[in-house]
Amino acid sequence: METFSKLTSLLMNALETREPTVDLLDSFVDHWKSITNYYIETTDDSRPVKQTEIPWRLRQMLDILVYEEKQQGVEATGSCMEYLLQHKLLETLCTLGKAQYPPGMVQQVFLFFSKLLSQMQKPLLHLVSVYRPVQKLIHLCALPGSHTEKEEAQFLLVVCSRVKQDPHTLRYVLEILDQPAKTPISDQTQVSTRASGHMTEPPLPASQPDSPTCGPVQSESGLLSVLLQLTKSQRSSVCLKAYESLLLLSSLHSGASEEILCGHTQLAQLLAGRLSELYSLLPVGTLDAADVQSWPHTPWSSQFSRCSSDQRSESPAYDHMTNFFTWFNFLDHLMREAPEGLAVKLADCVHRLWLLDVVHPQLQHTCEQVVLVSTSLLCAVVRLVQSSSLLDQLVHFLLKTTTLTRLLLQRCDHISDQISMVSLSLVEELLQKPHRDILDILVLSFLEGRTYLSLPATGQDDRHTESNEDSDGLEEDPFFSDSLLLVPPPPSSSSSAPPPAELGSAADIVNSFLCLVPVQVRSAQLLQEGGYESYVHDAHTLVRECQSLSLSWDWPHTLPPPACSSGQLKDFFEGHLLKVLFDRLGRVLEQPYELNLQLTAVLSRLSAFSHPLLHEYLLNPYIQLSHCSRSLFSVLIRLMGESVQRIQQVSNLTDRLLNARRHLLGLDHNAGLEHLTLLRGLIVLEEFCKELAAIAFVKLPLDQP
């Protein structure tokens, strides 16, 4: 036994002292020759590749390459790798795979390339003997009737992963070889001189343009178009890898890579075109607008979860909606991950190829169903978008396209209540986005001159005195009561800025809104609903939301001087949005309850923003308006006068209001509700005035003189 152990030790020592690379190379070459001999010796061309030694031989060759690199380190190039590169083994494998001989060979080639690129630590994609067969193999992906989608998707994901690690190789896999690489040599892991000296792409003459953006956009017949095609696969695992590959390429943050993707490829056009393609599949004429508008957040990766894959919808329309919104979320996510230049380019393509070319004609369509669904979809898109670049383009499309902007705002007062509601919803969704231009365009640009004030300016003291006299007159009106004049106790803390000096005291402002509704039409207390404190709580939430949006907008803290202070009277126009809001508010007693709720929601949100012009115009009952000007409070005053006249026609008003409230709460389904629209309008008015009072209370400190 001892003799056997000594013999074993001697043999092991002998093996360790021999040059290992010689044996590795011999073994590597032997495996390769065995593969090539198969083609020389075999006459049966129908035998599947899995029934041959080829898959095993390829695995052995790969194992040798990986082992050799581990032994010699990444800096050096082993003899086996030298042999693979110099004898163009990858080119030969690619040719054999394309010929599909023996049957199934292309699958083995994809597997070999994937494992080689993923398991080797040394960068290889910048070598001619590697990237050219890789390019050829890419062109074999996503072909019609392919049975190797799984292997193709894995191969492409590996290629994109290596490009992510070495961004300078992007130009090679995209076949953009007319520009010299910009990556410094120090950033690349070099192969040995003898391996790289004759195998890397030679530099171009100095006369060639240095920036990739100078060249024309090349036709997309390679990696990008293949990946986009695989995103349409019926196999979720294939789709997922294609999505991930596109994200890897799009998130390259090196300057040269960004310039290549923007200037030399049609990546942005392809991605935006896919969005338009999916949108065109939507059956706009039959979709339910409410379902479209309320579509939930649909993460692009959710479609690949097992539970969602197992649950197929029986409705093709639902499936089309899911496909559209998941792709939209993918683009939105991609633009948040991509460098700014690519994100802006992609968002611009979405604007041109989808919004302008497809959505814009639908918004101008004569069919109300088409208008309704397309506007509902825009509501969902604005609500779901998170990318700043894409939001910029949506704002540009909706608010800076003159004819379209006016059309959308006019539709807030459309003959169709449904179109009016969805148009108001679109405005509310816009007001919830972190984009300063939205409020500037819709409201502030029309108020900044303060030409709604009367001439001549009589001074703050006079205005305040006259306003208090008007307020006293209101309090003495038999339709108003002192029961709501008590303002609730102030909150424990407040971060609101003090109101402009022109405003009345906070208590006066709050009480003005609280006392605005005549006693006869107040009905909230009849059901012992939540008191005014609940409105204050909701107002705190709303004001905080609006403040968080406007923190970075650098709004002024004081009012600008009025344009009319020079003595020259200028006509005031409140803007298309406020005009349509005030017009509809004046008809609140004649409109459907749901429409009134949406209308007052928009006005409440506008009032909650902390801009001094909005404070003054929407929340100050005491400003002296110029001729033919109106404010939110003046519209409400006129509306209250109309309500006093209208309630004369309703007998047993208190009981009917109580029944109307119970009906809205679902407590009484069988109540006979005559004058239902009027009664609900009165309820909305009461609630809205309390909301405005609560917003004023939250925004304005009570100690304001």
Topology, number of strands: 0
Classification by helices and strands:
mainly alpha
**What is the CA-CA span between the terminal residues?**
107 Å
Number of helices: 32
| Overall body shape | elongated
Q: Quick check: average pLDDT?
A: 84
- Computed CA radius of gyration, to the nearest angstrom: 36 Å
Percentage of helical residues?
55-70%
Structure description:
With 705 residues, this protein is mainly alpha-helical. It has helices at residues 2-17, 20-41, 54-72, 79-86, 89-99, 105-119, 128-138, 149-165, 170-173, 193-196, 223-230, 236-250, 255-263, 267-280, 289-293, 306-310, 316-337, 340-363, 368-384, 388-399, 402-410, 417-431, 436-447, 460-476, 506-514, 532-550, 576-585, 593-608, 612-619, 632-646, 653-664, 676-699. The longest helix is centred in the middle third of the chain and has 24 residues, at 340-363. It is elongated.
Note the main attributes of this structure.
elongated; 705 residues; mainly alpha
Architecture blueprint of SSEs:
Blueprint: H1 2-17, H2 20-41, H3 54-72, H4 79-86, H5 89-99, H6 105-119, H7 128-138, H8 149-165, H9 170-173, H10 193-196, H11 223-230, H12 236-250, H13 255-263, H14 267-280, H15 289-293, H16 306-310, H17 316-337, H18 340-363, H19 368-384, H20 388-399, H21 402-410, H22 417-431, H23 436-447, H24 460-476, H25 506-514, H26 532-550, H27 576-585, H28 593-608, H29 612-619, H30 632-646, H31 653-664, H32 676-699
